[in-house]
Design goal:
- The chain is built from 13 helices and six strands.
- By secondary structure, the protein is of the alpha/beta class.
- A six-stranded parallel beta sheet has the order 1-6-5-2-4-3, with helices on both faces.
- The chain is globular and about 55 Å long.
């Protein structure tokens, strides 16, 4: 709206910081500077919090379930991590290509944290996270709850579908390939109670869905930007919801997933203070990404 109003990116970070020392941003006095910045940009911002317009919306509880990997899963994860370090350290790719290489290696580690089958289709190792989900689903269904299950990996959702099919459980499914007409049909079926579970890819179901029949939300894997997860959770916690909503996040212990969750708090600091719950995710440098792999938990 007003180019140059906040100076260059370098000037902005130097003056206001960004809530994370890894960027080299100023931290001393940044609270006072951020307060000044808030006043400076306030005339250009129009936003409403859900709490401002929905006083009677039921409560929301967020729970992080820390999943312990088995010894075999841990060994496999560490093997992948060490190979990733070797490949990246021995690579001579220039800037952008190296960044993509690091992201690719991180994706493998994230998938391994979810289920060994995602990185090794012939692997026979049981998934600790899938077992945790199965137990959670059994408890929810026995108490007659409906739940949304989100993952950003359609491959992960496919594995969950196999588990549900094996148990003979009815569910709805939505990802980016679902036709618009079918999308409306399955949403209505879920809202009418024809299924108690709804599997949704995070990108396809992050917004535009009204799924208030669910009073539980399960995130199977963390996304870089926590605001995207919040938007997905709000498919259930929105106008029309009459029951308290509980949100579970399944995080594999001592894996890159825990580091991503930690980054949620660090990178979101400035956005939280200025534009709470908006999508103001900072870009992550190649070195920061590489350190997520190198630094062991």
């Amino acid at each position: 709206m007003n180019p140059g109003m906040l100076g260059t990116q370098e000037q902005f970070i130097k003056k206001y910081g960004n809530g994370s020392s890894t960027y080299g941003g100023a931290t001393s006095g940044s609270k006072q500077n951020r307060s000044a910045l808030n006043r400076y940009i306030a005339p250009f911002i129009l936003r409403r919090n859900k709490s401002d317009v929905l006083d009677d919306l039921p409560g929301k509880t967020e729970i992080t379930l820390h999943v312990s990997l088995s010894e075999q899963e841990r060994a496999m994860y560490e093997m992948l991590r060490e190979k990733a370090i070797e490949r990246i350290s021995g690579s001579d790719h220039p800037g952008g290509a190296r960044h993509m290489q690091i992201l690719a290696e991180i994706t493998k580690l994230r998938q391994m944290s979810c289920n060994p089958l995602m990185v090794a289709p012939d692997c026979k190792l049981p998934s600790s996270k899938l077992e945790t989900l199965e137990t959670l689903i059994n408890d929810l269904l026995s108490a007659r709850h409906q739940a949304l299950i989100f993952s950003q990996f359609t491959k992960h959702l496919a594995i969950i579908r196999e588990m549900l099919d094996r148990k003979g459980l009815s569910y709805q499914y939505l990802d980016g390939s679902t036709p618009v007409r079918k999308r409306e049909e399955i949403i209505q079926d879920f809202q009418k109670g024809k299924s108690d579970l709804f599997l949704i890819s995070l990108k396809a179901g992050g917004s535009g869905l009204n799924l208030t029949a669910a009073d539980y939300v399960i995130h199977m894997d963390p996304w870089w930007n926590p605001a995207v997860e919040d938007q997905a959770s709000d498919r259930a916690h929105r106008i029309g919801q009459t029951r308290p909503v509980t949100i579970y996040r399944l995080i594999a212990e001592n894996t890159i997933e825990e580091k991503i969750v930690k980054m949620h708090h660090e990178k979101r600091d400035l956005a939280d203070k200025l534009l709470a719950d908006t999508d103001q995710s900072a870009k992550i440098s190649s070195e920061e990404l590489f350190n997520l792999i190198v630094e062991n938990n």
